Amino acid sequence: MSQARVHGLSALQPTPSLGIESRKVTKMEVIGLTISIASLAGLFQTAVDRFQYVQFAKSFGAGFPDQLSEIGQFLSATHAMGRNSRTG
Predict the structure, then answer these.
(1) Any idea of the CA torsion for 42, 47, 52, 58, to the nearest 10 degrees?
(2) Which of 1, 60, 69, 79 allows an S-S link to 64, with CB 3.0 to 4.6 Å?
């Protein structure tokens, strides 16, 4: 008697196929795959947006802090003029 026969198995018995064709795809697997694809698409879009922000920030160059302080001074002066016109 062979070793496989001792355990109640036939040595010539075919092994079950593990491919997709051997089982049905469940609804939950389809939903999970759909959610995964949507998540990857969202992640890719976020990465593209962040890359555009970096490119936009690089376009300002080294003079950006000076430009920002000029804008701040302009806004402060405009606010002061508006405040003085209301009080005076």
Answers:
(1) 160
(2) 60
Tokens of residue 85, six digits? 């016109």
Predicted model pTM = 0.41
Q: Which residues contact 28 (CB under 8 A, 6 or more apart)?
A: none
Token pair, residue 21, equals: 């064709």
How many Å apart are CA 22 and CA 16, to the nearest integer? Answer: 8
Q: Give the model confidence (pLDDT) of 14-48 as tens digits.
A: 555 555 555 677 999 999 999 999 999 999 999 99
What are the tokens at 28? 């939950």
Give dist(CA 64, CA 57) in Å, integer: 9
Two structure tokens written together for 79: 């606010």
Residues 42/36, Cβ–Cβ less than 8 Å: no
